[in-house]
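Support request from a user on the community tier.

User writes: "When I paste my structure tokens into the form, the page sometimes reloads and wipes my input. The last time it worked, I copied everything first. Here is what I submitted, just in case something in the input itself triggers the reload:"
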């Protein structure tokens, strides 16, 4: 494998995301730029310009026609992947922390931060209903009163979302009714990242409590714990092997030698 260094942001990276085919890589950072790269050779294909604050999250739909981004400028934006044209602007009262398309690419969800006197919400929009986009009114809005959502993904078949909270809790919310289907607390501190397995039967969480944990995506039953010496920023499950990859790097260390200070580990 030949490593490729991509340089397209002025501030630290907040999220990277491959499309389903794996030929495109989307990157967002604490600057307003959204980049798309050709993953084979690292060529930058273009940028999506419009945000005015840090961009926290990015996602591409099933057939890579649309791109979704959420930002600290209090907006979630929908883009045409090929042309970079902004298709929709959804304004919020606080920063958009997580976002994602459902399995069919018809429904989007995003969560907002608990800040400036506003509570955390998870909002759902059906892209097949233009009136929801025009009026900026989701078909469902779930309040999260106790602890803000720090990471969220769609569950199997788009029937629910799985959300990790600042408190370390995991919730499974119904995408139809908004009710909490399952609630567990296996982490003692904030959940930084959630990533599903390729078949969506399991997911792995990364937490500030120095652990990454494996869960059943339907029942949220805890399967296994992976312990480290430092907070885990991100974790992923290999699509081909029985491997879990953990990323443990402090923000203050980004300008130092990552081989000496950071920790990248596969188990």
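"...and here is what came back when it finally went through:"
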């Amino acid at each position: 494998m030949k490593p490729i260094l991509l340089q397209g942001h002025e501030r630290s990276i907040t999220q990277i995301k491959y499309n389903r085919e794996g030929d495109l890589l989307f990157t967002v950072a604490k600057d307003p730029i959204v980049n798309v790269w050709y993953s084979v050779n690292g060529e930058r294909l273009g940028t999506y310009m419009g945000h005015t604050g840090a961009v926290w999250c990015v996602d591409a739909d099933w057939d890579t026609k649309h791109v979704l981004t959420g930002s600290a400028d209090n907006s979630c934006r929908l883009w045409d992947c090929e042309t970079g044209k902004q298709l929709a602007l959804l304004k919020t009262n606080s920063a958009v922390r997580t976002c994602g398309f459902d399995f069919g690419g018809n429904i989007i969800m995003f969560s907002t931060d608990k800040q400036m006197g506003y509570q955390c919400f998870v909002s759902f929009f059906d892209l097949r209903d233009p009136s929801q986009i025009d009026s900026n009114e989701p078909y469902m809005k779930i309040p999260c009163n106790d602890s803000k959502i720090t990471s969220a993904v769609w569950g199997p078949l788009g029937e629910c979302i799985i959300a990790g909270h600042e408190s370390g809790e995991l919730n499974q919310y119904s995408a139809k009714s908004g009710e909490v289907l399952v609630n567990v607390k296996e982490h003692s501190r904030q959940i930084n990242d959630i990533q599903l397995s390729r078949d969506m039967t399991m997911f792995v969480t990364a937490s500030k409590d120095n652990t990454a944990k494996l869960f059943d995506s339907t029942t949220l039953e805890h399967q296994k714990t992976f312990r480290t010496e430092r907070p885990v920023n991100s974790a992923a499950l290999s699509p081909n092997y029985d491997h879990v990859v953990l990323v443990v790097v402090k923000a203050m260390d980004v300008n130092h030698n990552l081989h000496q200070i950071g920790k990248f580990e596969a188990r």
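Agent notes: The reload is a front-end session timeout and is unrelated to the input. Residues 30 and 54 are 4 Å apart (CA to CA). The longest strand covers residues 120-126. Escalated to web team.
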